[in-house]
């Protein structure tokens, strides 16, 4: 193990990261958010979501989602979810984050992950009034559920993944 960099395990819930620990090096990512080898050219620039307000993160999530940049949308809304923990909006942001992740899985070629996360996210946001924070919750949930059904049907029949017209906020 000589010469190998010491790796830190991922943070565990309920066990905060040592504030004196050096920052984790940022891994370069491809445009779909997959980590690349250290030293590779980064293809994805992400905002520092942890330094932004919940309102700004939500605005960015909507902007990224509408542009088809689902990984950054997922990251923005995942941060909103963390910022909204133990409030009545936590499930809303978790649902939006799962919708972003569902479309990321589709683009990465993982249909099972796509339809599973799209359904989970749709169920979460569907329980919120319409509109909620500018999101047409009922229409977005219905579109995600329809996409999930289309993806699952293609997966079960062994057909290629369909070209979808992605919903927008």
Q: How would you summarize the topology of this molecule?
A:
Elements: H1 54-66, H2 70-83, H3 90-107, H4 111-126, H5 137-157
What does this structure look like?
With 169 residues, this protein is an all-alpha fold. The protein has a domain at 49-157: Hyaluronidase domain-like (Orthogonal Bundle). It has five helices and no strands. The chain has helices at residues 54-66, 70-83, 90-107, 111-126, 137-157. Helix 3 (90-107) packs antiparallel against helix 4 (111-126). The longest helix has 21 residues, at 137-157. 31% of the residues are buried. The mean pLDDT is 90.
List the secondary-structure elements in sequence, H or E. Answer: HHHHH
State the total count of DSSP E strands.
0
CATH level-3 fold name of the domain at 49-157: Hyaluronidase domain-like
Helix content: 40-55%
Mean pLDDT score: 90
List keywords for this structure.
single chain, 169 residues, mainly alpha, 0% strand
Summarize the structure.
This protein is an all-alpha fold and 169 residues long.
């Amino acid at each position: 193990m000589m010469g190998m960099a010491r790796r830190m395990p991922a943070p565990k819930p309920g066990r905060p990261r040592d504030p004196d620990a050096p920052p984790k090096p940022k891994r370069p990512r491809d445009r779909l958010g997959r980590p690349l080898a250290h030293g590779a050219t980064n293809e994805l620039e992400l905002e520092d979501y942890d330094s932004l307000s919940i309102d700004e993160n939500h605005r960015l999530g909507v902007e990224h989602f509408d542009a088809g940049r689902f990984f950054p949308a997922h990251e923005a809304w995942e941060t909103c979810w963390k910022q909204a923990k133990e409030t009545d909006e936590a499930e809303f942001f978790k649902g939006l984050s799962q919708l972003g992740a569902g479309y990321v899985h589709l683009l990465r070629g993982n249909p099972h992950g796509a339809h599973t996360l799209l359904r989970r996210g749709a169920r979460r946001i569907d329980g919120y009034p319409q509109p909620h924070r500018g999101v047409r919750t009922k229409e977005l949930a219905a579109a995600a559920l329809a996409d999930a059904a289309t993806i699952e049907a293609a997966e079960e029949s062994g057909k290629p993944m369909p070209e979808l017209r992605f919903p927008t906020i």
